[in-house]
Amino acid sequence: MSAVRRFPGRMSGGVYFGPADWRAKKWAIPPSPIPESAAAGVAAVTNRADLSALLRRVALGKTNLFTPALADQLALLGERPVRLLVLNLLPSEPESTLAAALTDLALPHLRAGLTLLDMAVRADHRLVAVDRHDQRTLKVWRSVAQGHDLEVKALLGKYPLAHPLVLLRVLCRRSALNYQAPAAAGFLVVDPITCWALGRAAAGETRLTHRPVQVVVEGLEPVLAMAPVGEPLQDLFARLGFPTTGMECIAGGMLSGRLVNPADAVMEPHTDVVALRPTPRPEPSADCIGCGWCVQACPTALNPAAILAAAGMRAAMPLAHLYEAAGCIDCGLCTYLCPSRLPLAATIHTIKLGLAGRPDTETPANQKVFSSPELR
Length: 376
Ligand code: SF4
Ligand code: SF4
Fold this sequence. Notes:
The protein is α/β, with parallel strands linked by helices. It is 34% helix and 13% strand. The site of one iron/sulfur cluster (SF4) has 16 residues, from α12 and α13.
């Protein structure tokens, strides 16, 4: 039987769905010089304009749904100095082991991408921050930073989903910045896959044709695989020997991913994790008991209970609560914790789409996992 293990010292979203006795392994960084094929490409990029030109040439778009594309961030940043370069963590549990697997799988090109990024922005920045759980990437950064006037620090590991808005709250402690992109505050947020893809671009590969994906099957040890972008998830599971019959497939993580049909859904450039779990039994919702857990857990300081109430009692509750929904990052923590099993995140997601003038075309055909209150 699978275990759901909580990490008490961590953000309340720290949940692990694998075997109870599985522990992170010890690791060392193998020597992995930048591949010869990439070395010239890396050396050719020495400033931000070069980096922007490379990004335009290879059309490296979003590899992570939550982090704005590097090209967009550079455009927003303009000529202003970079105050902080943040390398995002990998958004799944347990980060340390899967991050180690990623660096094993992709280390040479990851190192090339990090070096390229370092050369392009180092004139202005002095600090690189990575999540403290991503020890392997931290070590790679430290080796890249040797000889440069560059400080590498581990962050607190207190932000779920590596969302830039939450990073800003952790780093700036300024809620006023909540609705701005990190680059507006002088921050560049880069996910490891972008760094890896940059390294491949430097080696002359033009597009993100495949990417690492974490495959999580309830009760089994998670694995990391390289998957072609566009590959049907059904084929990916078959390739790895995971049967899908009688299982629900979730793309994008157990807490905030989406239910998908593995026969229809394909690997997208931003698909970082896919999971399989037995179809859960339905669990009915009850009335809100005012426990405040959702308020306490919300990483963007919203009041999910009040937003839900405002949605149901439009005239009686302040409409301002409805507008709060715009600050939701869809992390799903409120729904996960709610003892009354209320569909907080799914409702707030629908309100958010309404505020943005977009119909919620995703539900129910592409129902959000966090709308399934039975997830425990
Ligand atoms: S309202 Fe819920 S889903 Fe949205 S950011 Fe807050 S905790 Fe996450
Ligand atoms: S966690 Fe659920 S029960 Fe508790 S205040 Fe929020 S909505 Fe109400």
